[in-house]
């Protein structure tokens, strides 16, 4: 199982710190957060992608995943007027283009909150209207779309593996695959491991981090309530050998370098105990 660093928590640091730390702490790859000041897709398109490519080469650290900022302001393809939602889809198409230029294997999307005054039918219609053209663009670029479910604190649109199964039944493409951030099933009292069985060959990626009931907070491994050592042993048992990003976000933004090291040290220890 390859372990990746998510760079969102480094947004007050130079981007180079992410690549430097990923290399010296023993991460296998970077999942690059696509927001300012580091890797906002329009900035990359305007020429700043060359600096990211230099860091990839300098530190021999691939960007396997690109995760554009698109859950709130100003982009969210689940809320607002038709024009606003279409604008968000256009932005994400550009993000796919930039992911291809970075050499990324996948781009991650997560359907955010659709607002309080819409029906379930409207929510699902918006989801299909956004994901279908994005999948078609992914097929052209050769970059997979990995879709992520969220907690009820973040979204009323896409929250579990069952939603993924339904989506894949309606949009059938090898370039649209699923993943599990382990916090959403944990806080909803659902099974993390069920994602692998329900999604089958569509199960492509993990976000591994710790969590607590009643919040969507992403906590350093070993400092929350998720039984991570046992989970890693189960992943080994089912021979999961794809990617898993240690998704520290902004909870440790004051000292991202310290906690990025602690996170991978803990998970490497769990992996060793599991026989990885």
From TrEMBL:
InterPro entries found in the cross-reference section: IolE/XylAMocC-like, Xyl_isomerase-like_sf, Xyl_isomerase-like_TIM-brl
Superkingdom, taxonomy of origin: Bacteria
Any matching Pfam family: AP_endonuc_2
Membrane-spanning segments: none
Record-annotated Xylose isomerase-like TIM barrel domain positions: 19-269
Protein name per its UniProtKB record: Protein FrlC
Organism (species): Muricomes intestini
